[in-house]
Amino acid sequence: MSNMNASKGKENSTENLPSTQTTKVKTGKEFTLTAKEATHDFGNGTKLPVWTYDGSVPGSQIRVKQGDKVKVNLKNELSEPVTIHWHGLPVPNSQDGIPGVTMNAVQPGKTFTYEFTASVPGTYWYHSHQDSVNQIDKGLYGTLIVEGKDEEKVDKDYTLVLDEWISSGESSMEGMDHGSMTSDKDTKDTDDSTESMDGMNMDMEEDMSMYDLYTINGKSAKNMETLKVTEGDTVKLRLVNAGYISHKIHVHGYDFKIVSTDGQPINDPAIIKDQTVTVAPGERYDLVFKANNSGTSYIESHDDTDAAKNMVAKIVYDNSKKANDKLNPKESLPNVDITKYGKTTKSEFSLDTKFDVDYKMNLGTAMKDNSMVYTINNRTYPNTEPLDVKEGDLVKVTLKNTSKSADHPMHLHGHFFQVLSKNGKPIEGSPLMKDTLNVKPGEEYVVAFKADNPGNWMFHCHDLHHASAGMVTEVKYKGYKASFTPDSKANNKPE
């Protein structure tokens, strides 16, 4: 891995690059997002070259209304091809932004226009899906908010994007501690060439400690995000995890409700007191609380790492004179179990539904050519077995994590799925609709979705180190023909 970037010193130079700007909020129906380089000051003495949409980290927030026909022009001013994937929002397959699968990557100096209808309200995000493990690490992401026609009004609406960085500035693929993870993975099936490590001592599984700089909205330490409120405000927090590590978030000093996850509403959410909410890579959680703790308080990470102490957002009242709340990131608090949260009600699927397709995905780890790979049913992409469906099919998928220590936040493009059971027990709380689900070692979930959006759709782990090392498959609709012609010169890298 150490030889991946021979020009690393040059790339890490911040000379001659403009400084990042404050993230803009863009409203309307037509937008331009420009991918370009900048230098970002994290606030702890660290400055790094970053890749951005519109010169900020995160990139511009796009806010549209449910039902809007949206047009986004992606202008590429970087030295490498890029795309935009609209994470969680169901769009036509041709607009999903997957190089080599739904489009050719947008080349340096070129522009591509995405068009879709913002049909489902909620909190979403967008990011490059070209060599995404590295391009997202460099900062190529932003948020997309679809305002619902009937959504509850709030006084303040804040989006908090969680991320983690390598302060040395090297790429995440360089920093990984298990060899060249992608070696020869696309040359043949791995059935005969991998040695399964399931159940073995997995000390070799990835070490994420090189991510030593945690941020909220690109800010850390003295630059921490400040959320201004007025006494009595109803405040919405949209938590988005754009990184590769799960984060336990505590809203210090407030009772709150989780009103939605991955943009999908929770039925009859209960008041939560003194619990953390774990946000896994790719997931989103919308929290609502009442501003009734006058003074200064915090939203803080309770992760068990030194870097977590800088993952903080300060809540400041407009009449506040002094801080009256102290940070306590080491406080031991229980974590909300989203599979038991809210109240049950009628839903589209149950374990008794008659399904047309029943697919099992064992999410594992293996060695191949002295390198770590991440597998689905002992295979690595592009040789994983696809989920073949017909439009209208009801599809059941069993996700089982057979890795010893690695989480696998599994993300399905183009669809929401309902979580039906965890470790053999039916979900107890609200019907749980998601597009990203974190499957921890030893866990097994059954999920279901309707095949109602024709195309070729990726289904992959959103720890993108795992995706780039093989943990990707596709949902393929029978008879669907992609509307683009793959270009061998486009350098398409879909993982």
From TrEMBL:
It holds the Pfam family Cu-oxidase. Residues 1-26, 170-199 are annotated as: Disordered. GO terms for molecular function: copper ion binding; oxidoreductase activity. Keywords: Copper, Metal-binding, Oxidoreductase. InterPro entries: Cu-oxidase-like_N (IPR011707), Cu-oxidase_2nd (IPR001117), Cu-oxidase_C (IPR011706), Cu-oxidase_fam (IPR045087), Cu_oxidase_CS (IPR033138), Cu_oxidase_Cu_BS (IPR002355), Cupredoxin (IPR008972). Gene3D superfamilies: Cupredoxins - blue copper proteins. Residues 37-149, 196-301, 366-476 form the Plastocyanin-like domain. Residues 14-25 have a biased composition (Polar residues). The keyword Phosphoprotein does not apply. This is Copper oxidase. The lineage of its organism: Bacteria, Bacillati, Bacillota, Bacilli, Bacillales.
